[in-house]
Amino acid sequence: MISKQNKKPHPGRKFCVAPMLDWTDRHCRYFHRLISQHAFLYTEMVTTGALIHGDHHRFLQFSAAERPVAFQLGGSNPRELAICAKMIEDYGYDEVNLNVGCPSDRVQNGRFGACLMAEPELVAECVAAMAQAVSIPVTVKSRIGIDERDSYEELVHFVSTVADAGCETFIIHARKAWLSGLSPKQNRDVPPLRYDVAYQIKQDFPQLEIILNGGITTLDQAEAVLAHVDGVMVGREAYHNPYLLAEVDRRFYGESKEPRSREMIMDLLIPYIQQQLELNDGVRLNNISRHILGLFHGEPGARGWRRHLSENACKPGADIKVILEALPTRI
């Protein structure tokens, strides 16, 4: 067992926004941070190969305003993961998270994601290598099992093996992954969720921080789950209905301030959008506007907001005027 290097759990993990490929980019995270100042944010997954052999700055750049924020890595080579973890720490991220839960064919072909649940000793090597390279926490996001290897005993073996390597925080998507026969989209809904399995892991490993992911769509539901585990992670609902995050700070972090209104959030986001468009680094309006389509979900004018942005933000030369024209109520 390696030393823990004083990597204390971050208090922000009580409520997390899930890493979502092609969704939780830096623009999305900046927007989410304007709604909740305390929720723990995660990047979309990036592979070690992309960081080592590609334009690492493009993947790693982020605004300090997004913190606390974790970077999710995909990979299975301990040496490469250690190199990337150090890069992530040097950029100022608060955590490095290893993806052991994605079931896509592309991920399996690269020998990372959910298929690694079949190799707990290799995951432990990866965690140990990363933990020795950095002082920020190294965490793991997994499923409760894969294919026919879904017994509770196998999950216990996985958790205990990886924990002994230095991982103190497990984010558990409480659904097993089928590695063939289902698309990643189908695998988000099938097989059924098993919250009881994650709850039992917390009971059997009380010293570990256990965060439950999967199927949480309301703050009432999140609060009920928190009676059994240390944190919750919300994915699609936080993306499609982002104003869900507005009550997170008061409800889960003891914040006394009133949450920002939707209009206040846009008032703060517009200068950011303007700045990004003026940087001339390839950012187009729809790169940012796609993340805010759901801001007025359930409010008068929401349909017109979505339609105007969807039809106009993608046009060549689209600028901040498109946003201002779309607002259901003028700022």
TrEMBL record:
One of its GO terms (molecular function) is tRNA binding. This is tRNA-dihydrouridine(20/20a) synthase. InterPro entries: Aldolase_TIM, DUS-like_FMN-bd, DUS_fam, DusA, tRNA_hU_synthase_CS. Pfam families: Dus. Keywords: Flavoprotein, FMN, NADP, Nucleotide-binding, Oxidoreductase, RNA-binding, tRNA processing, tRNA-binding. It catalyses: 5,6-dihydrouridine(20a) in tRNA + NAD(+) = uridine(20a) in tRNA + NADH + H(+); 5,6-dihydrouridine(20) in tRNA + NAD(+) = uridine(20) in tRNA + NADH + H(+); 5,6-dihydrouridine(20a) in tRNA + NADP(+) = uridine(20a) in tRNA + NADPH + H(+); 5,6-dihydrouridine(20) in tRNA + NADP(+) = uridine(20) in tRNA + NADPH + H(+). Catalyzes the synthesis of 5,6-dihydrouridine (D), a modified base found in the D-loop of most tRNAs, via the reduction of the C5-C6 double bond in target uridines. Specifically modifies U20 and U20a in tRNAs. It is an enzyme of class 1 (oxidoreductase).
